[in-house]
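Bench notes, afternoon.
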Amino acid sequence: MTSIKEQAAISRLLSFLHDWDNAGKVARSHILDSFIKANQGKTAPELEQEFSQGGSLFLVRLTTWLRLIYMTGSCLDKLLKSIGIFLSAVSSNRYLKEFLEVGGVLTLLEILGMEKIKEEDKKESIRLLQVIANTGRKYKELICESYGVQSIAEFLAKSKSEETQEEVQILMDSLVHGNPKYQNQVYKGLIALLPCASPKAQQLSLQTLRTAQSIIGTTHPSIVDCVLKVLCTMHLEVQYEAIELIKDLVNYDVCQALLKGLVALLIPSVKETSKPQPKILNDSSVPQFTAHEPGFWQQAAAAKAIGVLARSNTSVAEELLHQRVVHSLMAAMGNTDHSNSQRQASLTLEYLVQMFPVVEEHVRRSMGEGLYQLFLSNAEDLYMKIDSIQADILAANKVNVSKALCFSGVSHRNSSFPRGAHEPERPAYVTYFQKEDTEGKE
């Protein structure tokens, strides 16, 4: 027989559940406030003690109400926080299984795609998904099998809150670790995010891609084109992350394509540089900033990235010479429409001139002694000192160092780039996430 104390506890539990069952939205909101305040941070045994071994009875009521009202967004933040108290409690496996058995993951993912739901509520949904993913591999697989990567990535791209986007990054990072069955799906999802319109989403995706790339060990063919396109950004924090990823990618089988693509960006196509300007830039009352054209931002970033790569690896620098990088850098130095392109190209060329005598010889001959001495005196500020004729000399240069390289001891070193583990080809990229879930099920 139960003791008087136990009977009293059970009576309190039944009374609490009765109050919940008969309460309206306002009353339930007050009950949730009290529950959150009294039980935040408690372990599962402590919660069971609080509910006289009937914690699951309250959790099932919370999950049932969640499924009924999540489309309206009413009390959603408090409801999700209350469920989170159960799921994040130490030794909460039983609670977690009960939540998943009633379709909890699908509900959380659906919340992310609902336009009427507040951003703060969606952030709470992401935090619950973090708790679930961090519990173990099979739970990460469950999220991925529920089209979770697509829903989470789309939310990251559309979110207007940087704090929320950072929470999403934590979740994506968790999904790529210890999840061999679906890590490629997460990897492709991150690549698919690179063209999105949100600079913060691009920055976080690039950061997570570096981690994912090291875990997976092989590259996807689409990554080169996607990363190079990101270089057209005017957001320096995004450009920095893109260059950091490029530094990693030169150690994989896409190195040749990456270097070739970077050199090509130094001479933007007419199509890229003749795009219509925003209306505000055509207003006679504001200064004209033609340098804001994406092709020129990309040109400057490519020159900077080439300089970073050349300084970090001599073999990469030599390969760039074979790609006629000197000719392209000098052409960029003659782009009087964008001073940053001139500056970055000049700094990179200065390093190559200092490192390779054959480059120094060809650059001196092409520039002429006067312009060359001006270049040597201060490469960074050269763009401010040259006139239109000198700019034309740079833009129209015909320098071709490749022919002279073999005589200077600098050979074509295709074999110097990593192969082996990074060599296998990947299938053609499937746009976005179509049918990604079938990979793990086959």
